[in-house]
């Protein structure tokens, strides 16, 4: 997230000086207020430990931060064109709406023109901006103890039947047995963070991902090729077991996962994943910490890449990996989910600690 930005100390100095040098290319998210600002914002400055610096508005919104009303980071310093002005007003009036290209056409705009205008002025498309606002709202609802179904609707899951149709498209038609090999089976489960897809054979869990992860279709295809098997809708003992364990996890009753896993990564990736599983709920590690533990201090980026290659979300807790400065870093399921998971596990750890006392 920070590869193209200066060191965070430089950015924090720019924030204190209200510098305009990074206008449009760097933003600060304030953990204590849930707000993100330009570095030139005139508001009172947060403490260093409460800041996260990112390079895009989309990252701020996806992580659940709201735009500051003083410096208005959604408005560019050089002004906007009429299309951006009009659609931003429309979005402010209906932030919960699921905007589609047809809505732009009905307002007299060409979707490709809108896309270019928003990318030019805000670095993010209008539809992505609207989606991130819904996701951010859903994350805040869940963090505040809101209704799961309400949060799912906010995030855009209109109905169970709608998701079942998307799931069927992902899995495809039930296949015939191929090459005499055992089929893999896939099923889905509802969670407070939206549906998850699990793929397993009769003995091992091969994949567990949030259904809207952008790379999920490619992951499914790689799994088919690697195992030389087809995937059919269905349940197996590992799927039943992981559903039970996830239910206990989301209820805050247990952070333990004992479902047998099929880990198909390289030896290095499996070494990183093992270190991730050593991180207890309520704790975090940086990529550098893990690199030190496996004596690869020069391979921090390799550790980050192995972290991203994990296909078994939550069970192999890549969400517990954070930046060396304590900031949230990329997460395939979305930063808003990562934020929720860490808060949930923090509360779980506190509860378990009180019970031991």
Helix content: 40-55%
| Low-pLDDT sequence parts | 147-158, 173-181
Number of strand elements = 10
Integer-rounded radius of gyration: 22 Å
Q: Which oligomerization state do the chains in this entry correspond to?
A: single chain
Count up the helices. Answer: 14
Structural class: alpha/beta
What spatial form do the alpha-carbon principal axes imply? Answer: globular
What CATH calls the topology of the largest domain is: Arc Repressor Mutant, subunit A
- Superfamily at the CATH H level of the largest domain? Winged helix-like DNA-binding domain superfamily/Winged helix DNA-binding domain
- Number of folding domains? 3
Task: Return the CATH architecture of the largest domain.
Answer: Orthogonal Bundle
Report the end-to-end length measured between terminal Cα atoms. Answer: 40 Å
SS strand fraction: 5-15%
Chain-averaged pLDDT: 79
Order of helices and strands: HEEEHEHHHHHHEEEHEHHEHHEH
Give, in spatial order, the strands making up the sheet with the most strands. Answer: 3-1-2-4
Labels describing this entry:
14 helices; 10 strands; 4-stranded mixed sheet; alpha/beta; DNA Methylphosphotriester Repair Domain; 44% helix; 11% strand; Arc Repressor Mutant, subunit A; 357 residues
